[in-house]
Design goal:
The structure is a single chain. Helix 1 (4-57) packs antiparallel against helix 5 (219-294), helix 2 crosses helix 3 (119-127) and helix 4 packs across helix 5 (219-294). The protein is α/β, with parallel strands linked by helices. The two termini are 35 Å apart. The protein folds into two domains: 4-23 and 253-291, Helix Hairpins (Orthogonal Bundle), CATH 1.10.287; 25-250, Pyruvate Kinase, Chain: A, domain 1 (3-Layer(aba) Sandwich). The chain is elongated and about 120 Å long. The protein has helices at residues 4-57, 93-104, 119-127, 145-160, 219-294, and strands spanning 78-83, 112-117, 131-136, 166-176, 179-188. It has a five-stranded mixed β-sheet with strand order 3-2-1-4-5, with helices on both faces.
């Protein structure tokens, strides 16, 4: 049985760990709020850009679509942008997104390449023997649009050059502190009939206006500028949502760790009290035995 001193040291060690996990829980809670505020701030631009894209694509007399709106006749290669975290201590967050992504493309008979956003996802993909064409790690929390615009450029350039025929986005969408949903959706080519996540209140099927507008500059130039930015914006919103999910998962994991530490401290304190009481009892028995031995009447 450990000595009383060893048990005191262990109790203090667990208390220190509980302080760290409690601090991480508090930090994660504040980061969730900041990430969601950043997502909310991007929605007005996303909704307006989506309306412009849909309206131009549905203009009467439009015979050609932008290359980023055109479905390829043959799908030869697929690119997946997978969002994970750079750090651990967030429960099964990274393992879940990897498992769902690999399962989604498991039966696809086309080559699949990955762009990893987050160090943990990159390492897990390498361990599973997947092809990783690019890696973006150590993004700030929350990032700015400029921090992630290069990811959008990479996806758009790969699609326009014909290196890939479809681009998918895999991330964890934040709903509440206790509910996060893994989402795998097509990023390119943009499906005009389906409103992306984060763009609420507008869908092509809900707007049947036949009005014709004259755009300045022309429609092709507008699409050439708006669509790549809108694609990067979708990635940006997904990263913010994924980071909010990561922080929520870490907050819950740290809360559970703190609760477990408190339970362990109570058990150790009880064992320490028993050991201390036993030591006191043994000392009293030794004193009593010694006094009895020195008693001449004994």
């Amino acid at each position: 049985m450990p000595s009383a001193r060893e048990m005191r040291l262990r109790i203090q060690s667990v208390k220190n760990i509980a302080q760290v996990t409690r601090a991480l829980e508090t930090v994660s809670a504040s980061k969730v709020r900041r990430a969601m505020q950043a997502v909310t701030a991007t929605r007005p631009y996303a909704e307006k850009a989506w309306k412009v894209i849909v309206h131009i694509a549905r203009q009467p007399g439009s015979t050609t679509l932008h290359p980023l709106l055109t479905e390829r006749e043959e799908i030869r290669k697929v690119l997946v942008v997978m969002l994970s975290s750079d750090r651990g201590l967030c429960g099964a967050y990274n393992v879940n997104i990897l498992r769902e992504t690999l399962l989604h493309f498991k039966n696809l008979d086309k080559p699949v390449a990955y762009v990893s956003v987050g160090r943990k996802g990159r390492d897990l993909l390498f361990r599973r023997g997947q092809k990783v064409t690019a890696d973006f790690s150590n993004l700030p929390s929350p990032p700015t649009f400029m921090d992630v615009s290069s990811i959008g450029r990479l996806a758009v350039d790969a699609f326009l050059k014909g290196e890939v025929d479809q681009v998918f986005l895999a991330y964890t969408d934040f709903h509440t502190m206790v509910k996060q949903e893994i989402v795998i959706r097509q990023l390119l080519p943009i499906q005009v009939a389906i409103a992306p996540r984060g763009v609420k209140g507008f869908n092509v099927t809900h707007n049947q206006s036949k009005a014709v507008f004259i755009y300045e500059p022309d429609q092709d130039e507008i699409l050439s500028n708006v669509i790549p930015r809108f694609t990067a914006l979708q990635i940006y919103q997904s990263i913010l949502s994924a980071q909010a999910s990561e922080h929520a998962a870490r907050m819950i994991a740290m809360r559970n760790a703190t609760d477990n530490a408190q339970d362990l401290i109570r058990e150790l304190q009880l064992d320490y009290n028993k050991a201390r009481q036993q030591a006191i009892t043994n000392e009293m028995l030794d004193i009593t035995s010694g006094a009895e031995a020195l008693n001449p009447k004994a």
